[in-house]
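Look at one record.

>
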Amino acid sequence: MVAISRGQADEARRLLLEVLAIIDETGSRPAQQSLLEVCAGFAALRSQWIQSARFYGAAEAYSAQTGIRRDAGDAAFLEPLIAAARTALSTELFSAADAAGRQLAYDEVIGEARVWLESPP
């Protein structure tokens, strides 16, 4: 989150890939939740608004499923980035991308995050 807040896209990408490796090793549900939220913020940093909304929708669905809620610090990080995505997209586009993210199975969204993070910007 710090790297994204500082606009350090390369560092953010590297750290998110490290989190993916930790998730692969441990299966940590809190890390999974955090990864999706931070990917939503990272996509917003990169002005990839639809991808941001998809990851956000997936994070919200995962939160509803697991009961894991973001803390106040994480919310303070994510909310302005999601607000930027909402502003950049029409209400219809944001809602459609958010809904599409909510429909993804956990393995699907993690696979999507992996491919997205491993692809050049």
Notes: Residues 58 and 104 are 7 Å apart (CA to CA).
